[in-house]
Amino acid sequence: MAVRPEKEQVVKEIAERLERSTSVVLADYRGLNVAEDTELRSKLREAGVEYEVLKNTMTSRAAAQVNFADLDQYLAGPTAVAFGYDDAVTAAKVLYDFSREHKALELKGGIIEGRVVSGEEVASIAKLPSREGLLSMLLSVLQAPMRNLAYSLQQVADQRVTVQKHRPLNKRIYVPERCLWNLGRLFG
Q: Are 133 and 48 spatial neighbours (Cβ–Cβ below 8 Å)?
């Protein structure tokens, strides 16, 4: 069966977008009204995600060209495709959050970092914290030992001050300087 040159060009463009993107999410948009669809498109645009309704046959041919033939199982019925280029989680997160608010939007499946995944896997990936959130968690874990050391050193310094304040004037208490590491100078 001969394919018209216009359709070949469209398939080629879709294949290029599939190769460039870090994530592709397929969604069934039936049941969304125009206002809801416009809201979804604006949220995706703000996140830097391309969103388009594509013909299943053309998407299937493009997926086969770039070795994602397994994507065919999710190309049934009306399908909207979201292409995420910067972050593998962004497209999934925006669509998942929107689908929680609007039950008409259903996640079918997609491609995340070169792997074809189901709608459930897309949803579980969308529930992960963002890259910035993960980095802040990592920094918190890395800072914890230093924070604990500083807290412990402050406690030792506070004990020394307390001992000096409560000793009788005529008695001296010997506190070895080498044990305290001269914390009095550090903490004032």
A: no
* Helix, strand, coil percent values for the chain (each to nearest 5): 60, 15, 25
SS3 155: helix
d(CA 114, CA 88): 10
Distance separating alpha carbons of residues 11 and 60, to the nearest angstrom: 9
Rounded to the nearest 5 degrees, what angle is found at the Cα of 73, between the Cα atoms of 71 and 75?
Answer: 75
Contact 100, 27 (CB under 8 A): no
Q: What is the secondary structure of 41-87 as a DSSP string?
A: HHHHHHTTEEEEE--HHHHHHHHHHTT-GGGGGG--SS-EEEEESS-
Q: How far apart are CA 113 and CA 121, in angstroms?
A: 13
Query: With 0-12 CB in 10 A as exposed, 13-18 as middle and 19+ as buried, what is 68?
Result: buried
pLDDT in tens, the chain (188 residues): 456 888 888 889 999 998 888 889 999 988 889 999 999 999 999 989 999 999 998 998 999 888 888 888 898 888 999 999 888 888 899 999 999 998 888 999 999 888 888 988 888 888 887 777 778 888 888 887 777 777 777 877 777 656 556 555 555 555 555 555 555 555 55
Cα 11 to Cα 62: distance, rounded to the nearest angstrom: 5
